[in-house]
């Protein structure tokens, strides 16, 4: 089976160095302007998205909702199997790296710089700072982030929170305005599972997939490893369908 790209005729892409994978969907009235643009396999970019950054990299199976606004003077890196809902603002003036499996909910704003007040009159706020959002972090919705340099792996930011802390530690839960650590109250996003339970859960997930798509039954044996979170990338219809359908997330074998 050959997977075709679907780029809407109204989309405007301006890049000196361009690499686009297979099965990519780019919606209507999208505008992307970058020196270097790399889009992985089976990426979806919704209608009306606007991206104006020097380097824009998007990993496999990432989904970007309608109306994204991404601007800045430093690179914007978005990893694999990232889910960005509609109406999100991403600022890369300080540099922004969003790692694999991150979720960013509708209407959220991620800022890496603060600049407006008159410095001659004594304004103290004029800064740029790189921000890294690590693997599996989840910003639930309408979250605002500013002045932060790290949101740690598997961190959970509750909806409508305003994060101004310099560091959000891994495996913590934050909420409020300004956001505070609420892990003791709500617990961590992820529970600790044994290898046995991860394998058992993957098998159950694959069985549910087979029930929804019986034409692919018995075609995923040995493809996915829940312990290393890797898969054998062959771009088969069953593999692609599973990775688009399931919340389970994997990267290709041999990749970082």
Describe the fold and architecture:
- The protein has helices spanning 183-186, 195-212, 237-245; strands at residues 6-7, 12-20, 25-26, 31-39, 44-45, 50-52, 55-58, 63-64, 69-71, 76-78, 83-84, 89-91, 96-98, 103-104, 109-110, 113-115, 126-128, 131-133, 138-139, 144-145, 150-151, 156-157, 162-163, 167-168, 173-176, 179-181, 224-225, 230-231, 251-252.
- The longest helix has 18 residues, at 195-212.
- With 256 residues, it is mainly β.
- The chain folds into two domains: 6-186, Hexapeptide repeat proteins (UDP N-Acetylglucosamine Acyltransferase, domain 1); 195-252, no CATH class.
- Strand 27 and strand 28 (230-231) form a beta hairpin.
- The strands form four sheets. Strands 2, 4, 6, 7, 9, 10, 12, 13, 15, 18, 20, 21, 23 and 24 form a 14-stranded parallel β-sheet that branches.
- The protein has three helices and 29 strands.
């Amino acid at each position: 089976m050959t997977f075709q790209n679907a780029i809407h005729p109204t989309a405007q892409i301006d890049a000196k160095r361009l690499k686009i994978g297979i099965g990519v969907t780019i919606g209507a009235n999208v505008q992307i302007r970058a020196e270097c643009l790399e889009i992985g396999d089976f990426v979806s970019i919704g209608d009306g998205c606007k991206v104006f950054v020097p380097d824009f990299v998007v990993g496999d199976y990432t989904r970007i909702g309608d109306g994204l606004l991404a601007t800045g003077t430093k690179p914007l890196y978005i990893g694999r199997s990232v889910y960005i809902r509609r109406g999100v603002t991403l600022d890369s003036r300080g540099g922004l790296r969003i790692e694999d499996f991150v979720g960013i909910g509708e209407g959220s704003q991620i800022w890496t710089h603060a600049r407006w007040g008159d410095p001659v009159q004594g304004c103290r706020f004029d800064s740029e700072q790189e921000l890294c959002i690590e693997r599996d972090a989840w910003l639930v919705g309408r979250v605002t982030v500013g002045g932060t340099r790290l949101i740690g792996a598997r961190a959970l930011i509750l909806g409508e929170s305003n994060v101004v802390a310099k560091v959000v530690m891994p495996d913590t839960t934050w909420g409020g305005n300004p956001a505070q650590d609420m892990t003791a109250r709500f617990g961590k996003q992820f529970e600790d599972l044994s290898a046995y339970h991860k394998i058992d859960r993957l098998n159950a997930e694959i069985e549910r997939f087979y029930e929804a798509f019986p034409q692919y039954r018995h075609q995923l044996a040995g493809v996915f490893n829940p312990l290393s979170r890797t898969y054998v990338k062959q771009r088969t219809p069953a593999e692609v369908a599973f990775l688009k359908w399931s919340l389970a997330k994997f990267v290709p074998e041999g990749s970082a």
